[in-house]
Design goal:
Blueprint (H helix, E strand, L loop, with lengths): L2 H6 L6 H9 L18 H23 L5 E6 L2 E4 L2 E4 L5 E5 L3 E5 L4 E6 L2 E13 L7 E3 L4 E4 L3 E6 L5 E7 L1 E6 L2 E6 L2 E6 L3 E2 L3 E2 L4 H11 L5 H8 L5 H7 L5 H15 L6 H5 L3 H9 L6 H4 L8
Parallel strand pairs: 7-8
Antiparallel strand pairs: 1-2, 3-6, 4-5, 5-7, 6-7, 7-10, 8-9, 9-12, 10-11, 11-14, 12-13, 14-15, 14-16
Helix pairs in contact: 4-5, 6-7
Length: 303
């Protein structure tokens, strides 16, 4: 055992340790006592200069960071700032913005205020009553973007990012992952983290239709025929959204039932099955809801 030499050089030397000492001799630390008042030079001076530069940079960064801008939203007497995250406990809170509207957050909700007209609901329940012009107010979720088209609605989002939107007055446009859904008053629309916005349906739709729709969206292809059979003329809203989303082989059946219920010319069938946008717009107009020239304008970049 030669630990004594390794630790305090008191025992017999180890050949391998001696060899390493010779090879590393030029890197040996040599302490030089500083002379009082002497000027620093070499490596020590360079390190001191580097430390001063880093300190100055840190102070400059701290001083140049601008405070978060205020939004138009107020919670009681407090102003909500851009980027601020609000988390409710056992009780909900109410946000109001004079140029935008009123938003009520339910208990256990989490919301980020991106700007005065752009909110992010991470979980919980949001009830919005918006008087800003259509297309100006948007709520982001993990699975879809809800664009207000002049309305009042409730949006629920769970911890996984799945949600359900219920429109009370006006319209809401739901968009994500290449899918878009248009939900009028009295209708609801689910949204899922994996697939984005689903197929909207009226709250008074027959249970046979809503049950078949849920089964179809869960992967039961046979449920489509049951859904078509249960549809009423008012459920043309649901069939219109289904038409471009079902496999090409099934689009003819969807169009035929839509045309029977709503009353569109059979001459549109071939183009509708191919997903022609102008033809689908003509089919939408037959629902007597809002003309496509009005609601197409909701599409705009949101930041």
């Amino acid at each position: 055992m030669r630990e004594d030499y390794l630790w305090d050089r008191s025992g017999p030397p180890d050949p391998d340790i001696e060899r390493l000492e010779r090879e590393l001799a030029s890197l040996r630390y040599r302490f030089v006592r500083p002379v009082p008042g002497a000027r620093r030079s070499g490596r020590g001076a360079w390190l001191a200069m580097a430390a001063a530069v880093l300190l100055a940079a840190a102070l400059l960064f701290r001083g140049s960071s601008a405070p978060a801008a205020a939004t138009a939203w107020r919670m009681g007497n407090a102003t909500v700032l851009e980027g601020q995250v609000l988390r409710t406990g056992d009780l909900g809170v109410t946000l109001e913005a004079e140029p935008v509207g009123r938003v009520e957050l339910g208990p256990g909700s989490e919301l980020r205020a991106a700007t005065s007209r752009h909110l992010e609901l991470r979980r919980g329940r949001l009830h919005a009553f918006i008087w800003a012009p259509p297309r100006e107010f948007v709520v982001e979720t993990a699975s879809a973007r809800a664009v207000d088209l002049g309305c009042q609605y409730t949006l629920d989002v769970d911890g996984a990012g799945n949600g359900l939107l219920r429109v009370e007055t006006g319209w809401v446009a739901f968009q994500s992952q290449g899918h878009e859904s248009f939900i009028p008053a009295g209708a609801v629309c689910p949204t899922r983290r994996r697939n984005g916005p689903g197929i909207p349906f009226y709250e008074d739709a027959p249970e046979a239709l809503t049950g078949a729709l849920a089964a179809y969206e869960s992967g039961d292809d046979a449920a489509l025929s049951r859904m078509l059979a249960a549809a009423r003329p008012r459920d043309g809203l649901t069939l219109w959204h289904l038409l471009p989303r079902v496999p090409a082989a099934a689009r003819g059946d969807v169009f035929d039932r839509f045309a029977q219920l709503v009353g569109v010319p059979r001459e549109l069938r071939a183009a509708a099955v191919l997903g022609d946008a102008k033809t689908l717009d003509l089919c939408w107009n037959a629902l007597n809801l809002e003309d496509t020239g009005w609601w197409r304008g909701w599409e705009r970049p949101w930041r």
